[in-house]
């Protein structure tokens, strides 16, 4: 599948990256759709600005919600959304959890919610940042992505261990129509068109798998939306199915957001918004159900 920028088989240089950037357009408003939501958060959350993206600091301030009061004796749970800005329900699922459900858990956990790590990507409906860097492959020291570096620095500065981490994502039809072809063009490689799974699934950490935790997430989400089946090879997006709706990745090695926190319990959710039976609200509800299912499991350990 060809891509309109670059020469097949040759990785992009700065000229091609600039061509790609020039082609991007603002399609929705981070300030109106995300930042405005922070003004109505319950009083048990502090809204803290932890930085701003250097592309346009005034337009793209970054916020994290910190539960208040903070209890040093409680385990800390991190929720991240919008690492890939185009994955809409990750952003609004994090906001909905904070607004509607988080209060039920504050006697058991400290909560940190970073609803939109990539606001430029949110506005342009993009997987990458303006430098054609994928933030969700950039969670490592001296990260080239400010979206990743600023969050890692913020969490480190808090001086707390993360007990559980919910990283909210989507798998969309545009992964095959736009983002994987763009990736192949950028890197001068061949694009493999993967089957897009029809339904919800999660990604566990292959270095520290927690199958019972993942199963609890799947069981909770199954009450809200359908779970993705494996393809004819027994895989989801090229990875073997470990159990219903669960695949494994080496998260830290791949530089994924779910790997930097070093939490014992980590899940990366993947909602399918392009399903014929999905709606935007259904996708948001699935994200909230995933968090609740995981937290309820941890409460019963």
Q: How would you explain this protein's 3D organization?
A:
By secondary structure, the protein is α/β, with parallel strands linked by helices. The protein has one domain: Aminopeptidase, CATH 3.40.630.10. It is built from nine helices and ten strands. The strands form two sheets. Strands 1-2-4-3-5-10-6-9 form an eight-stranded mixed β-sheet. A hairpin with a 2-residue loop joins strand 7 and strand 8. Helix 3 crosses helix 9 and helix 7 packs across helix 9. The radius of gyration is 18 Å and the shape is globular. The model has no long low-confidence stretch (mean pLDDT 97).
In short:
The protein is an alpha/beta fold. It has one domain: Zn peptidases (Aminopeptidase).
Write the layout of secondary structure elements.
Layout: H1 14-22, H2 30-38, E1 45-52, E2 61-67, E3 76-81, H3 88-101, E4 110-114, H4 119-124, H5 146-158, E5 162-170, H6 174-187, E6 201-205, H7 211-221, E7 235-236, E8 239-240, E9 246-249, H8 257-260, E10 265-271, H9 280-299
Parallel strand pairs: 3-4, 3-5, 5-10, 6-9
Antiparallel strand pairs: 1-2, 2-4, 6-10, 7-8
Helix pairs in contact: 3-9, 7-9
Organism: Pseudobowmanella zhangzhouensis
InterPro entries: Peptidase_M14
Family: Belongs to the peptidase M14 family.
Features of the shown structure:
301 residues; Aminopeptidase; two-stranded antiparallel ribbon; 33% helix; 18% strand; globular; M14 family metallocarboxypeptidase; Peptidase_M14
């Amino acid at each position: 599948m060809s891509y309109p920028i670059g020469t097949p088989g040759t990785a992009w240089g700065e000229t091609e990256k600039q061509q790609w950037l020039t082609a991007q357009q603002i399609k929705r408003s981070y300030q109106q759709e995300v930042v405005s939501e922070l003004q109505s958060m319950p009083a048990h959350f502090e809204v803290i600005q932890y930085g701003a993206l250097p592309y346009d600091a005034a337009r793209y301030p970054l916020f994290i919600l910190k539960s208040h009061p903070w209890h040093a004796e409680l385990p800390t749970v991190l929720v991240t959304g919008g690492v890939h800005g185009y994955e809409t329900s990750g952003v609004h699922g994090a906001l909905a959890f904070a607004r509607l459900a988080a209060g039920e858990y504050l006697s058991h956990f400290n909560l940190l919610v970073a609803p939109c790590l990539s606001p430029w990507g949110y506005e342009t409906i993009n997987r990458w940042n303006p430098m054609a860097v994928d933030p969700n492959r950039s969670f490592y020291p001296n990260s080239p992505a400010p979206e990743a570096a600023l969050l890692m620095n913020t969490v480190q500065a808090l001086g707390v261990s993360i007990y559980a981490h919910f990283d909210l994502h989507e798998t969309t039809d545009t992964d095959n129509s736009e983002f994987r072809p763009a990736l192949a063009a950028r890197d001068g490689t061949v694009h493999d068109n993967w089957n897009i799974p029809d339904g919800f699934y999660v990604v566990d950490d292959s270095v520290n798998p927690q199958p019972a935790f993942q199963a609890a997430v799947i069981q909770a989400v199954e009450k809200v939306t359908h779970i993705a089946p494996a393809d004819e090879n027994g895989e989801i997006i090229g990875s073997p199915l470990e159990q219903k709706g669960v695949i494994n990745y080496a998260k830290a090695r791949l530089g994924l957001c779910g790997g930097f926190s070093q939490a014992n319990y980590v899940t990366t959710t993947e909602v399918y918004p392009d399903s014929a039976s999905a709606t935007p609200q259904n996708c948001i509800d699935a994200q909230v159900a995933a968090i609740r299912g995981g937290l309820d499991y941890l409460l019963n350990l």
